[in-house]
């Protein structure tokens, strides 16, 4: 009996084979949040108000039912929360928010592993906002603030890096098919069982990712409730 094999990569996205890219670092202050929006967020009295403002700015109004919007909006909201807790100025808040946003975009631009590339991008873009060398970089953050930002990003975004990757990128699967010449009915039955197990595994992984996202959200909200309402800087 002869065996023939074939394999292929499957994904729901036509650009799934895009590999991590090189990125040009530039100053991002006011790129995503203009001065007026930054001031409004700084004056928002509660975290709920911050979330509502961000949802309106970035058109994430379906976050209650669309889990990607919910995760993204939480990321944006907690970024503003951190900036307010550190008493960042308006331009610092805008720059930090855009740094987080760019880091997330680099992370999710490819389904392939790019943790090192994303972290190196984060270090480079943060450095460009910590050293005065116009027009290439601007000294928005002090050395102390750079340390705090780095520590915060490592313990929040990069700790959940694989979760963001799983939630925002298409899943790449390797399909390996074995075709036996003169196969019996028992072999066909085994193939059906394998397909069924694959479907159950995909469903289980999806449910796990969603439950992890929910648990992270609940833990962070519990921590925020202990601190109380955010005060206006």
TrEMBL record:
Q: Where is this region: Disordered?
A: 1-20
Pfam families in UniProt: CLAMP
Name this protein carries in UniProt: Coiled-coil domain-containing protein 189-like
Organism of provenance: Octopus vulgaris (Common octopus)
